[in-house]
Amino acid sequence: MSPRHRLPAAAALLLAATASPVFAQAAPAAAPTAPAATPVGMVDDPCIAAPAVPASVIAYLRSTFGPIARRLAMPAADYAAFSAAQDAAKAGDWAQRCFYRADNERVATLPQAERRVVYMGDSITQLWGFADPDFFSAGRVNRGISGQTTAQMLVRFQADVVALHPAMVHIMAGTNDIAGNTGPVSMQDVQNNIVAMVTLARANGIKVVLASIPPAARFTWRPAIKPVAQIAAMNAWLKDYAHKAGAAWVDYFSLMATPDGAMRPDFTLDGVHPNAAGYAAIKALSASVTGARR
Questions:
Q1: Among residues 260, 244, 174, which one has the least CA distance to residue 208?
Q2: How far apart are the first and last CA of the chain?
Q3: Domain of 245?
Q4: Which residues pair with 210 in a beta bridge?
Q5: Average pLDDT, the chain
């Protein structure tokens, strides 16, 4: 979630890529290099080339969702170099509009059936692509970015969702707003961002699925925040707003939560992000609501 957040045994997970063709040509353990020049002002191509994810980092991330006996050690040096390059790129692109730009061009050329549902979200959505790559090869497109708040998602919503002309968008967001990743924010501000994304989708004939914020009792990168009550309040609002707006509602929270509002230990990597079992638990519900192929 937070750009600086690290999991105890899986630090790279929260900054790494999805199982997307964006990273299909990752460099083999080579340190990412900065571009020769940074664009300034309004230019034809404002995107700094995305740093290549080292193959060692991709292999590590994929292994994290597999059997424990086959998990790889984190390649610390390769990851540190990639993380630094990614941080540098984000300094000039707050909403990370360039993160999926190249892949958006590719996806836009695919048959509509191959981009039927776009999943907009944060690292919980992004990591879903690693946990279950096949889920995103059946008419689903992953547009999650680690650490993002609803304000950042709203900025990139036109390019990463609307311009792809999907039949449906699945929005799962709010964890990082509660954590304050991009600064203090009111609940009304977060709700306004959700309403704006839904309004954009509906204006372009895109059906909307609103997902609950997954359970969490604490954020390891924001230990002072106690999120249970705010997650519950936001989920109550999301459910009500989905009904009023004519959007579908999908309740992952109830599938994954303990009675005290935490994520079930058998479903999570760190109390916030699902593990392979957690993603498996919500897969069927997601497929049934989006109506896409399983």
A1: 244
A2: 27
A3: 101-290
A4: 171, 249
A5: 86
What would the two tokens of residue 225 be? 């925040």
Query: Does residue 143 share a domain with residue 18?
Result: no
Model confidence at 2: pLDDT above 60 = no
**Residue percentage of the chain with pLDDT more than 70:** 85
Measured between alpha carbons, how far is residue 227 from residues 32, 145, 176, 273, 274 in Å?
A: 36, 21, 10, 14, 17
For the chain, counts of helices (H) and of strands (E): 10, 5
Residue 17's region, left for phi above 0, alpha for psi from -120 to 50, else beta, is: beta
Which token pair is 145?
Answer: 């970015």
- Chain length of the chain: 294
Q: Beta strands 140-144 and 168-172: pairing type?
A: unpaired
For 39, the token pair is 């664009």
Split at pLDDT 50, 70, 90, the class of 204 is: very high
CATH number at residue 243: 3.40.50.1110
